[in-house]
Amino acid sequence: MDKEKKPEVWLRGPLPDIPALLQPVAHALLQAREEIQILLQDFPEHLLWKQPADLASVGFHLQHLEGVLERLFTYARGETLSKEALAYLQSEGSGPGHTVIGLVKAFEEQVDKALAQLKATNPDKLTHFRGVGRAQLPSTVLGLLFHAAEHTQRHVGQLLVTARILQADVLK
């Protein structure tokens, strides 16, 4: 990524092949990816699982970002979660064996999968019912995709604050 300050993703114009109604979802996911890449570029490994003031760790947020995108986009396709997805959900927040680079890369790959799904999403089906979870709580394709974007942004914000607090404490 170049060092020149760019406008936020949503101010750079439409993304090719993404349906018009799904542009905000794609913009939010790309913005999240860029912010994480910049902030965690030199993030110290020993801080990955630290929880200042009992906040969720940077590692947890990275795992959760990957997992929640997979789960919400699975529901948007009208599918149920696989055993692997449920096992991943249970493992979110586990630290051993994970690195900053590995977790950032996994999130980036999940964003790429999400963008590919957005490109393949038929805009005529955005209001179609989609059940969420075992209880099949009511949502729609658009509701799930929008929630994936806003949930991602929420966790990126929390991750950014936690990372800055941890890095500020290291500099003291």
Automatic annotation (TrEMBL):
<dbReference type="Pfam" id="PF12867">
    <property type="entry name" value="DinB_2"/>
</dbReference>
<dbReference type="GO" id="GO:0016787">
    <property type="term" value="F:hydrolase activity"/>
</dbReference>
<feature type="domain" description="DinB-like">
    <location>
        <begin position="29"/>
        <end position="159"/>
    </location>
</feature>
<dbReference type="InterPro" id="IPR024775">
    <property type="entry name" value="DinB-like"/>
</dbReference>
<keyword id="KW-0378">Hydrolase</keyword>
<dbReference type="InterPro" id="IPR034660">
    <property type="entry name" value="DinB/YfiT-like"/>
</dbReference>
<protein>
    <submittedName>
        <fullName>Metal-dependent hydrolase</fullName>
    </submittedName>
</protein>
